[in-house]
Each structure stands twice: as structure tokens, then as C-alpha cells.
Amino acid sequence: MEQKLQTLEKEATKLQDRIREYKVQISAVMMTSCAHRSRELAQRSVNELSDLRLQVRQNESRLNQVFREKQSLQRTLLDRLHPSGIKRI
Predict the structure, then answer these.
(1) Which residues, 6 or more positions from 88, have their beta carbon under 8 angstroms from its beta carbon?
(2) What pLDDT, on the 0 to 100 scale, is given for residue 38?
(3) Under-70 pLDDT residues of the chain
């Protein structure tokens, strides 16, 4: 169980890093898209923004799932440490 917890923590860190990278890319695309005069290049930038934003949403969703799994696992570990059933406040 502790190994699973470490795995989830590593995955959460990777997801957070990836989300930050996507957000940096979004900023860069937005800055360059403003400079594009041609409609085709501007549309390509809009499409790229949509793709990057989708990646951010998917990664944030997975990150939330990882956090929930981690909390559940931590609760289970605490329950095993306290077999008397003492609940923490």
C-alpha cells in the first residue's frame, strides 16, 4: 500500500509538471497568434490552443483522481494503524 501511495505521489507530480508545461505553451501560442495576420495561421493557433486546453483539462481531471485515490489510501493506512477504531478529527 505504501508503494502504491508513492506511485500516486510521483504521478501527481508528473501531472502537475505537465499541466504547467501546457499552460506555458498556451501562453506562447496566444502571444504568437496575435501576431499572425493570415487567417489560416490564426486558425491553426486557435486549434492548437483548443488541443492544449483539452490536455490541461484531462490532466487536471486525472490529477484530481490521483489525489482522491491518495486520500483514500492514506485513510486506509491510518485505519490499519489504529485498529481500535479511533477516528481522527
Answers:
(1) 78, 82
(2) 76
(3) 33-37, 83-89
What pTM, to 2 d.p., does this model score?
Answer: 0.70
Longest dimension (CA), the chain: 70
For residues 1 and 77, the answer to whether their CB atoms sit within 8 Å is yes
Checking phi first, is residue 77 left (phi over 0); if not, alpha (psi -120 to 50) or beta? alpha
C-alpha 9/C-alpha 17 separation (Å) is: 12
pLDDT for the residue numbered 42: 73
Cell of 68: 482522491
2 — phi, psi (to 5°)? -65, -35
**Interatomic CA distance for residues 70 and 78, integer angstroms:** 12
